[in-house]
Design a protein that fits this description.
Elements (H helix, E strand, L loop, with lengths): L19 H49 L2 H21 L2
Helix pairs in contact: 1-2
Length: 93
């Protein structure tokens, strides 16, 4: 760094650098970007949580449907409906 001259910076009447407003805008932009990134991360984790809860509930619903159904026809229809909903849910993973 020896041999380099210090750059003169123009100051405002309040003693701030002339590009101070630009500096503040860049800081605001960085904060907003970080907030957006954090929000997206939280949303992603919540969606994962909801899918996991759904995966825990489906077997219970299947079990309840098979035990509470009367007759083969009702049980088959319930199981078929649950399988269809579970397979469509797997497509969105």
């Amino acid at each position: 760094m020896a041999g380099q001259k210090k750059k003169d910076v123009a100051l405002t009447p309040f003693g701030r650098p002339a590009d101070y407003a630009e500096f503040l805008e860049s800081l605001k932009s960085r904060v907003q970007q970080a907030q957006t990134k954090a929000m997206l991360s939280v949303n992603r984790e919540l969606i994962r949580l909801y899918w996991d809860i759904g995966r825990l509930i489906v077997p219970l619903a299947r079990q309840r449907a098979s035990s509470s159904s009367r007759g083969t026809r009702g049980r088959s229809a319930s199981i078929f409906a649950l399988r269809a909903s579970a397979s469509s849910a797997r497509r969105f993973r």
